[in-house]
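I hope you will forgive my troubling you with a question about protein structure. The record follows directly beneath this note:
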Amino acid sequence: MRILLAIDGSEESYQATKALTQLSRPEQTLLLHVLDVPKPAYPMMMPEIAQELYTTMERHMREEGERLLHRTALSLPMPAGQVSRHLEVGKPAQLILSVAQEQRVDLIVLGARGLGPIRERLFGSVSHRVLNEAPCPILVVNRALTPLRDLLLCLEGPHDAEAMLRFLSTKPFQSSPEITVLTIVPFSRPAWPADERSAEIIQGQLLLSANDFVEGVAEKLSAAGYSTTARAQLGIPSTTILDEVASRRPDLLVMGSHGRKGMTRVVLGSASHAILHRMPCPVLVIR
């Protein structure tokens, strides 16, 4: 497995580095630090002076960035495979995505430093843009990742299941956690007139089909060596998942991402984006 670890010197970035201890030994670990050098914001400043200020600031940031990469390389859990260090200048999300694509990484690991639910919906954040566009799974670390014993796997449909089975079959963790496979059926009453009994029948049929789906996924995970349970229930996906995490307190939440783009994402959001704002544990998003 080739891992891209994006670091920025924050506490969340430090926890993301420590999270590597819970993953299987990678073939290669790529350390990436992006310098987002601010441009001088004084319109009356002479261009020569503005450029000199920018150059000086970039030089200082490069020196600190090199020190950060060096410290992080020394703190990586052993063995970390072949380690390479990358210092880039530009927008963090854009460069994380481009390096992940160019280097064909199997997993991106980064800390979550959200802007808050309102500003994020308007402007986005590094972790959310990476979630929306990454070519591979993403582990978003918002606090310490404890030894993985209990994993909550939330599925929306067959596409999620295929991607998750493919990823989990590679044995990406140091341990083999117990996995609860959960799907949420977002049931609402039919648009056409229906009595209470008809609505109950439809609910039952939906739950029966959903249960068959998650039990089939659980069987495949069991064949891959995991201990599993499966469950389907009615509810609003984001709210129900948050409630489930609060009651179960899993070590890691795993879910798929059907990231909407543009104004659709701003207005409607998605379960994975909504959950990241309030999730009390790290999240692995598999695309």
Q: What stands out?
A: The chain has ten helices and ten strands. The two ends are 16 Å apart (CA to CA). The beta strands are 2-6, 28-35, 82-89, 107-111, 138-141, 150-155, 178-185, 228-234, 252-256, 283-286.
